[in-house]
Amino acid sequence: MGVIKVSQSFRTKVTPSRMFKALILDSHNLCPQLMFSSIKSIDFLQGTGQPGTIKQMNFTDASPFNYVKHRIDEIDEEKFMCKYTFIEGDALMDKLDHITYDVKFEPYGFGGCICRITSEYYTKENVEIKEEDIELGKDRAIGMYEVVEAYLLAHPHAYN
Predict the structure, then answer these.
(1) Ranges for the Bet v I/Major latex protein domain (predicted)?
(2) 3-state SS class at 9
(3) SS3 at position 48
(4) How many Cβ atoms sit within 10 Å of the Cβ of residue 45?
(5) Distance of CA 51 to CAs 30, 43, 60, 72, 117, Å?
(6) How far apart are CA 98 and CA 87, in angstroms?
(7) Within 13 Å, how many C-alpha atoms sit on residue 147's CB side?
(8) Are 123 and 97 in contact (CB under 8 A)?
(9) How much is the pLDDT for 23?
(10) Taking the model in full, what pTM does it have?
């Protein structure tokens, strides 16, 4: 099994607390509303948000994928960080065993934050993954964060 590690970050004018609440704690409600053309629903299969919780993200017919399941491995509401693992779904493209994500929202400037995402792609035995597959996943993740950022900037009282 091979591992490909990818780090990315972006800055926003939204506070770490609001980004964390919207993207991590309430993503199951907010993301299907904001990204209705690609995300049909996010359902809790086990747990209520604590470590061990398993959620399933169901995609619309417009998406190239049907679903992905992820498990919350660690969550810290005071430090605005979350670790989770994609454990199942066609988004793993039969090439990946799983993907781990370490997400942190750190204060930056006056009232903003830097979102840092470290992803580790664990390939299946004897499988090579193309750089463009990883780039596509990175672009989708950042795109989701940017949509939520735009919503929070347009709605300054949401998730306070």
Answers:
(1) 1-155
(2) strand
(3) coil
(4) 10
(5) 20, 16, 27, 5, 18
(6) 5
(7) 18
(8) yes
(9) 95
(10) 0.91
pLDDT in tens, the chain (160 residues): 789 899 999 999 999 999 999 999 999 999 999 999 999 999 999 999 999 999 999 999 998 889 999 999 999 999 999 999 999 999 888 889 999 999 999 999 999 999 999 999 999 988 888 777 777 777 777 888 999 999 999 999 999 9
Rounded Cα distance between 20 and 15, Å, is: 9
**Residue 109: how many CB atoms within 10 A of its CB?**
10
| Tokens read off for 138 | 């990175």
Rounded Cα distance, 45 and 159, in Å: 24
CB neighbour list of residue 123: distance below 8 Å, 6 or more residues apart: 1, 2, 3, 4, 95, 96, 97, 129
**What is the per-residue pLDDT for 140?**
76
Q: How far apart are CA 29 and CA 27, in angstroms?
A: 5
pLDDT attached to residue 80? 98
Burial 94-107 (b: 16+ CB within 10 A, else e): eebbbbbbbbbbee
Is residue 115 within 8 A of residue 145, CB to CB? The reply is: yes
Type of residue numbered 129: I
